[in-house]
Backbone:
C-alpha cells in the first residue's frame, strides 16, 4: 500500500466528517427549548395567530360553514401536493419533519394573521388617505403586500436559524424551509380569500362563490407565496451567511428584492394592464413563467453545495467499491444525470434496478450522516442493501 | 484499506447552553434574533395600525361629487361627509373598474353602498341580507327588522327599506336589484343622531342610480 493511497483515503474520510459537520445532516431538532428566546417569540406569535384565525373562522362559521369546510379540505389536498413536491426536491441533507412543521406553522399563523394582515390593512388605509382611494385601489396591494408579507414570512427564517442553528446551514436549507413557510402562508391566506368570496354575494351562494375563488387561487397559486418565500429565504441566508454558506450580501439582497418584485408585479396586474382585460391572462402567464424560471435558477444556484456534501459523504464508499463512480456521479447530479444513469441499463428491469440502487445509496448517505460517519449496524446494513439490489437478490422481507 | 473515522465527540442536546452564553437562564445568542422578530411583529401589528389610526381622513365630499361603485351604480354623497372607501365617478382606477363598495362617515354615522351579483328581486335580497346578518349576529350586533317598506329612488329604482338597530345604535338597510346586480345600502349611527344626518342618509339613498349599457363600466 502506498503512502498516497493512505493519504487519499484519510482525506476522503476527513472530507466526509467535515461534510457531515458542515451540513448538519442527520442532526436532531428539539422544538421545546425554554432557554432559547426565539422559542418563546415563536410560540407567542404562532399561538396568537392561530387564535386570531380561529376567531375569524368561528365568527363566520354560522353563515359560511360549508364554504369554510370546502376550502379547508381542497386547500389541504392542494397543500399536500406542494408539500410532497418540496419534500421531494429536498433530497440531500433533508430537514427533519418536525422543523418543516415549525416552518409551515409560522407561515400559517404568525406571519399571516399577527403580522401581515394587520400591517396590510393599515398601509392600504394610509395609502388611501395620502394618495386617494383610486390610487390605493390600483397600487395599494402591490406596494404593501410584497414588503409586509415577504418580511413577515422571512423573519420566520431568523427564528428557525436560532431554533435549529445546527440544521439551517446553507442557502438551500433557506430555500426549502422558506418554501414551507410560504406554503403555510398561502394555504391559510387562500382559505380567507375563499371565506371573503363566500360572503361576497350577500351570502346567497357561499359555496358557489367560494369555489370559483378556490379554483383561481389553485391555478395561479403555482407561482405564489411558496415560490416567493423560497427565493426570499435563500436570499436571507446568503445575506446573513452561515457556517456552511459564506456571506454574499449582494446575492442575498438581489434574491430578496426579486421575490418582492415578483410579488408586487403580481398584485399590481390589474393596474399594469390598465383595465384591458384581454391582456390580464397573458400577463399572468408571463409572470408565472418568469417566476418559475427564477425559482429554478435559484434552486440551481443553491443546490451544488448540498450535492457536494453528498459527494463528500459517499466518496469513501466509491473508493471502497460499495458504490461505483457512475452511481456517485448520478446521485450527486441533477435529475437529468439520474435519468441518464437509469437509462444506461439495457432492459426495463435493469433500469428499474439502477433507480433502486440510487435510492439505496441515498439511504446509505442518510445512515452515515446519522452515525456521524462511523460504521454502525445500520450503516453496514444499508451498504449491504446497495449490494443486494445491484445483484438483483430478493429483500430480506421477501 | 478503509480509514477509521475520528471518534464521534460527545454532543450535548439542543437545549444545552454553554455557561458563558447564559443570561438570566436564556441563551444570550438567541436574544438578538428573537428581539428583531418581536420588534418587527410589534411594528406590523401595533405601530403601523396606530399610525393609520392617528391619520385622519380628509377626503371630504364637495359639491358636484358623485360616487360610483362596480357595475355602473352611482349616488350623490352628502356635503360634509368624509369618504373612507370608494371612488368618485370622475376618478376611475387605472385597473378599469370601480370597487364594489363605497363608505362615507360623518361623526358617528356611517353610510355604505355595496354591490354584487344577485338573482332575485329586492325583497329577496333584503331577506338574504337579514338571513346572513342574523346568522353572523352576536349579542351586541345590530339586528335587521322584520318589517319593510317600499322605496323608489329619484331615478325610478324600486327597492325596499327596513330598520337596523340594537340598544346603542340604529340605522337603515335598503336593498335594490337591477340587471342581476344587488345593491345593499347600510347606514348606522348613534340613537341620538342629529336629524340633519338622517336627512343626508335619506337623500343619499334616493340618489342611487344605475347606468346601463355603454354608460355602465
Residues:
Amino acid at each position: 500500500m502506498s503512502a498516497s493511497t493512505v493519504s487519499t483515503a484519510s482525506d476522503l474520510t476527513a472530507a466526509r466528517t467535515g461534510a457531515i459537520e458542515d451540513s448538519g445532516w442527520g442532526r436532531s431538532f428539539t422544538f421545546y427549548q425554554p432557554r432559547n428566546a426565539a422559542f418563546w417569540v415563536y410560540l407567542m406569535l404562532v399561538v396568537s395567530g392561530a387564535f386570531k384565525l380561529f376567531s375569524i373562522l368561528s365568527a363566520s362559521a354560522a353563515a359560511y360553514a360549508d364554504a369554510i369546510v370546502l376550502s379547508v379540505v381542497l386547500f389541504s389536498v392542494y397543500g399536500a401536493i406542494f408539500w410532497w413536491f418540496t419534500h421531494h426536491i429536498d433530497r440531500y441533507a433533508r430537514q427533519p419533519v418536525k422543523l418543516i412543521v415549525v416552518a409551515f406553522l409560522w407561515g400559517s399563523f404568525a406571519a399571516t394573521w399577527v403580522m401581515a394582515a394587520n400591517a396590510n390593512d393599515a398601509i392600504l388605509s394610509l395609502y388611501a388617505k395620502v394618495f386617494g382611494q383610486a390610487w390605493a385601489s390600483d397600487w395599494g396591494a402591490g406596494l404593501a403586500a410584497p414588503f409586509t408579507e415577504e418580511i413577515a414570512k422571512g423573519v420566520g427564517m431568523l427564528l428557525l436559524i436560532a431554533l435549529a442553528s445546527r440544521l439551517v446551514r446553507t442557502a438551500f436549507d433557506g430555500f426549502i424551509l422558506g418554501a414551507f413557510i410560504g406554503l403555510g402562508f398561502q394555504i391559510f391566506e387562500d382559505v380567507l380569500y375563499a371565506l371573503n368570496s363566500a360572503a361576497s354575494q350577500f351570502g346567497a351562494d357561499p359555496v358557489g362563490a367560494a369555489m370559483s375563488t378556490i379554483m383561481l387561487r389553485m391555478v395561479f397559486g403555482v407561482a405564489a407565496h411558496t415560490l416567493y418565500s423560497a427565493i426570499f429565504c435563500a436570499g436571507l441566508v446568503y445575506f446573513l451567511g452561515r457556517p456552511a454558506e459564506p456571506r454574499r450580501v449582494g446575492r442575498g439582497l438581489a434574491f430578496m428584492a426579486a421575490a418582492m418584485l415578483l410579488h408586487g408585479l403580481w398584485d399590481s396586474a390589474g393596474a399594469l394592464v390598465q383595465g384591458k382585460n384581454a391582456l390580464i391572462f397573458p400577463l399572468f402567464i408571463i409572470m408565472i413563467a418568469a417566476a418559475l424560471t427564477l425559482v429554478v435558477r435559484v434552486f440551481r444556484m443553491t443546490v451544488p453545495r448540498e450535492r457536494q456534501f453528498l459527494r463528500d459523504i459517499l466518496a469513501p464508499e466509491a473508493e471502497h467499491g460499495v458504490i461505483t463512480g457512475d452511481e456517485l456521479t448520478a446521485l450527486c447530479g441533477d435529475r437529468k444525470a439520474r435519468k441518464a444513469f437509469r437509462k444506461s441499463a439495457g432492459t426495463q428491469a435493469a433500469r428499474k434496478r439502477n433507480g433502486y440502487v440510487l435510492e439505496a445509496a441515498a439511504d446509505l448517505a442518510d445512515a452515515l450522516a446519522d452515525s456521524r460517519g462511523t460504521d454502525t449496524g445500520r450503516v453496514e446494513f444499508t451498504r449491504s442493501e446497495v449490494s443486494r439490489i445491484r445483484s438483483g437478490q430478493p429483500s430480506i422481507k421477501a | 484499506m478503509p480509514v477509521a473515522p475520528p471518534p464521534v465527540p460527545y454532543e450535548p442536546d439542543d437545549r444545552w447552553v454553554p455557561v458563558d452564553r447564559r443570561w438570566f437562564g436564556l441563551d444570550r445568542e438567541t436574544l438578538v434574533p428573537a428581539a428583531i422578530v418581536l420588534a418587527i411583529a410589534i411594528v406590523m401589528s401595533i405601530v403601523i395600525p396606530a399610525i393609520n389610526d392617528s391619520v385622519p381622513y380628509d377626503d371630504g365630499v364637495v359639491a358636484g361629487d358623485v360616487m360610483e361603485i362596480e357595475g355602473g351604480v352611482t349616488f350623490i354623497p352628502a356635503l360634509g361627509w368624509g369618504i373612507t372607501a370608494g371612488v368618485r365617478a370622475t376618478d376611475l382606477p387605472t385597473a378599469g373598474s370601480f370597487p364594489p363598495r363605497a363608505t362615507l362617515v360623518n361623526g358617528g354615522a356611517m353610510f355604505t353602498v355595496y354591490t354584487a351579483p344577485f338573482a332575485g328581486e329586492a325583497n329577496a335580497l333584503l331577506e338574504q341580507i337579514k338571513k346572513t346578518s342574523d346568522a353572523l349576529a352576536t349579542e351586541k350586533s345590530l339586528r335587521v327588522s322584520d318589517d319593510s317598506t317600499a322605496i323608489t329612488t329619484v331615478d325610478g329604482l324600486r327597492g325596499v327599506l327596513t330598520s337596523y338597530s340594537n340598544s346603542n345604535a340604529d340605522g337603515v338597510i335598503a336593498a335594490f336589484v337591477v340587471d342581476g346586480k344587488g345593491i345593499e345600502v347600510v347606514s348606522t349611527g348613534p340613537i341620538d343622531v342629529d336629524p340633519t344626518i338622517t336627512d343626508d342618509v335619506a337623500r343619499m339613498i334616493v340618489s342611487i342610480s344605475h347606468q346601463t349599457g355603454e354608460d355602465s363600466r
